[in-house]
Every structure is written in C-alpha cells, then in structure tokens.
Write a structure and sequence with these properties.
By secondary structure, this protein is of the alpha/beta class. It has 2 domains: 207 residues, 3-Layer(aba) Sandwich (Rossmann fold), CATH 3.40.50; 124 residues, CBS-domain, CATH 3.10.580.10. The strands form 4 sheets. Strands 6-7-8-3-9-10 form a 6-stranded mixed beta sheet, sandwiched between helices. The chain has a 4-stranded antiparallel beta sheet with strand order 2-1-4-5. Strand 16 and strand 17 form a beta hairpin. Bound molecules: adenosine-5'-triphosphate (ATP). The site of adenosine-5'-triphosphate has 12 residues, from strand 2 and helix 4. Belongs to the ABC transporter superfamily.
C-alpha cells in the first residue's frame, strides 16, 4: 500500500477553503453492530478475516482525501473495491460507520434531514449510469427536473434547462422523449439535468459505462470540453483506468475498500501503486517511444512581436484561449502574451508587446521523449513550447495531450 504517496499528496494539497470537499478517516462496515467493531483497531485486519469472524462486510477502510474546487476527481477501482459505497456515503444515501465528510466547512455526517435535502438539491448533483430519466417527460422537462423540485417557476427553469441542453449539444431536441434517443443522447440529457441546477459538486457514477466504445470516447472528449467551460468540481467514478487517466486531474485508486493511491495521471504513470496499474502502464505506455515532435500541435494563436497590443488583445480575445505564443520574424520564441498583459499595456498607453510577455517558460526539443515531458508540464499553466536548437518555435503541447498520448491504444502508437 502506497501510504507515503497518499500522505504526500495530502500535504501537497495545502490550499484550503470552505468550498472543497474533504473525506476524513471514513469507514463503512455493513452488518450488525458495525460501530462496535471499530472499538478495536481494524486497520490491519484483512477484510476476509472480519467477514469470517463477525459476518460484517468491510466496504471502506479509513479513507481520507481532499478535493479542491474545480478539480476533476476520479475514483477508480475494479468491481467491489468500494467506489459506489464511497459516493453513497458522500451523498449520505448510506450512513458511514465512522469518519467525517466536510463540505463547506461542515461535517455533513452531522446534518439532519432538512440540511441533507438542501445539500442534495443545491450543492451536489448526480449523473447516473443508467441515465435516470423520466420516460414520460420530454428532454426539456427532464433537463429542468432538478429545478422543478426546487420550486422554480416554469419560465425560469426552462431558460436554464435550454442553456444546459445547449452546453451538452442537444439544442433542438427539447420536445423529444428519452425513449427515442440513443444511449449517448440520453446521457447528455442526464448531464444537462445536473448542469441546469448549477451544482458545486457534480457526482458522476460510471456515466459512460453503458455506452458503446465509440460513443463513450466521444462523450469523454465532450465532458473534458464542458468541464473546461463550466469548471465544476466533478467526482467521477469508473472501473476503467483508461477513462480515469484520460479525464482526471486527480485520481484515487481503490482496492478492497482502501484508497491505495491518489495522484495526478502523471504520478499514476510514473509511480503506479500496484501491479494492476503497473501492468496497464507498461502495456499501454508509449512513454519511451513517442517524442514531443510527434504530439505537438500548431498553437491556437501565434503573434509576431511587431503586432500592437490592441491587435494582440483582439486576437487573444477571439481565440478560445487567453494567451498566445509570440515569436520574432525568424520564428524565435519570445514568450507568451496574455489577455491581461496586453490590457495592462493598452491602459499604460504605449509599448511593444515584448514588454508584457511571460518569458519564464519551460521548453523542450522535438526529440524529447514523452516520459521526459511529465516533469516539465506542471511548471507552467500554459502549453509546453517545442523549439529547435536555435530557439525557433515549432509547436505547442497541452498538458492533456501528454496524458492522452500516453493512453492511446498501443496499436495506434506503433502505427504512428
Ligand atoms: N448493502 C450492502 N450490504 C453488504 N455488503 C455490501 C453492501 N453494499 C456493498 N457491499 C459490499 O461492499 C463492498 C464494496 O462494494 P461497492 O458496491 O461499493 O463496490 P464498487 O467498487 O462500487 O463495485 P461495482 O463497480 O461492482 O459497483 C463489496 O464487497 C460489496 O459486496
């Protein structure tokens, strides 16, 4: 068990704030007199021994982690590892045997019925594996359902539901009924229903596992895009390591009721906590084969140093990003111009865009191996710049691209 890893990660996550969710020393034991069992120290007693001696099932053992606002937190584990029990405890659909769950600085394990109802209506929202749609409600009414429960007026809830349906790409499908939609579309409705309520924490329980592989990939890509837009805190449960690595900003890997590792996808790759993860990583990993030059992309916006701050601000503004790479006329990389930086220059009234560049950027060469990109990526909030030996800008690599390249099908990598 990689306890050191868990502790390190917890120490590193020093950000504190009332909005984050924290699970502290959570235990769940199913069976009679479960609480009594915890009077003795069960930390090192195997699950099987507990079952044999007491007839009780240990589902969660001393779980602790913290989720920061806006994080995409994936709980990954094989069947029976305790994922569902954990999220049911977080929603208090079942009672933890011991421990606390802190949301907004409050231990929700102490909430009465009224506070729990409020939390489930306003703070959290759940997307289910089997969609959970009402078959006799059309798409719009399904998407508006969470708001109806809150008692919101029809006009207001429809407006919010329409907006959420647009976010998930279902504009124009409002009057259809769930039965006439494909699985992928039904799950979009499920997602829209959750987004419409604007929850702080979106909990998704294996939402794509009922979908066929192609649709599933498409939904994963779209969820990443949606998350980049709405920036919700997402707790996503899956038994698929590929999906976990693709989606998560942090992943908690569960086995036998324990969290055996918490880390970023990069950490899971470089320091897999158990044989299952290690095998997957070795099997799938093109880290020692793929190079930066193979996975780099053209930058979203490229500016030249002679462009004025106003033109630069405009170009950044109309792009999907809030930054742009800036090069000389010989294409040497100078740095990154940000929207705020250009704004400040304009307010000052003069100056070339060189004056307001972020220049402290990690760069790599086109032949840098994927495995050597891992330590570079977290050094900057911007994509990694690929340059040749003369400093000429060749392309950019987003953090997510690094991970996606790691988990592409092996065959695809070999054929690259
Ligand atoms: N109501 C219950 N009574 C007794 N044991 C239970 C109950 N619910 C779950 N368990 C046990 O708790 C353990 C964790 O189950 P859980 O359903 O949380 O796992 P999971 O990782 O979500 O699995 P799956 O992916 O198959 O849903 C298992 O050993 C399971 O048999």
């Amino acid at each position: 068990m990689n306890m050191g890893k868990i502790l390190n990660t917890q120490k590193e996550q020093t950000l504190s704030g009332p909005e984050c969710l924290e699970v502290k020393n959570l235990w769940k034991i199913f069976g009679p007199k479960a609480k009594n069992l915890l009077k003795s120290d069960l930390r090192n007693v195997p699950k099987e021994e507990i079952l044999e001696k007491t007839g009780c099932v240990l589902a969660l053992r001393d779980i602790s982690f913290r989720i920061e606002p806006g994080e995409f937190f994936v709980i990954m584990g094989l069947s029976g590892s305790g994922k569902s029990t954990l999220i049911r405890c977080i929603l208090r659909l079942i009672e933890p045997t011991a421990g606390s769950i802190i949301i907004h600085g409050d231990d929700i394990c102490k909430y009465d019925k009224e506070k729990l109802t409020h939390m489930r209506r306003y703070t959290t929202s759940m997307v289910f594996q089997h969609f959970g749609l009402l078959p006799h409600y059309n798409v719009l009414d399904n998407a508006a359902y969470g708001l109806k429960v809150r008692g919101m007026s029809k006009e207001e809830r429809y407006a919010k539901a329409e907006q959420a349906l647009e976010t998930v790409g279902l504009k124009g499908w409002e009057s259809y009924y769930p039965g006439s939609l494909s699985g992928g579309m039904q799950q979009r409705v499920g997602l829209a229903r959750s987004l419409a309520t604007d929850p702080e924490i979106l909990i998704m329980d294996e939402p794509f596992s009922g979908l066929d592989p192609l649709i599933r990939r498409q939904m994963q890509d779209e969820l990443v895009e949606i998350q980049e837009k709405v920036k919700k805190t997402i707790i996503f449960v899956t038994h698929d390591l590929y999906e976990a690595l693709k989606l998560g900003s942090h992943i908690a890997i569960m086995r036998n009721g324990e969290v055996i590792q918490i880390g970023t996808p990069e950490e899971v790759f470089t320091e897999p906590a158990d044989d299952y993860v290690r095998d997957f990583v070795q099997e799938a990993s093109p880290a020692k084969v793929l190079t930066a030059g193979k996975i780099m992309k053209e930058p979203g916006v490229l500016l030249y140093e002679w462009q004025g701050p106003k033109a630069a601000r405009h170009m950044i503004n109309v792009s999907e990003h809030d930054y742009a790479f800036v090069v000389t006329k010989h294409h040497e990389l100078l740095g990154i111009a940000t929207f705020d930086g250009m704004n400040a220059l304009i307010r000052k009234g003069s100056g070339s865009i060189r004056e307001a560049l972020v220049t402290d950027l990690p760069t790599c060469g086109p032949n840098t191996l994927l495995e050597d990109l891992f330590p570079l990526a977290p050094l900057s909030p911007y994509p990694l710049a690929v340059t040749d030996e003369k400093g000429k800008f060749l392309g950019q690599i987003r953090n997510r691209t690094i991970i996606e390249s790691m988990i592409r099908d092996r065959e695809e990598v070999v054929n690259d």
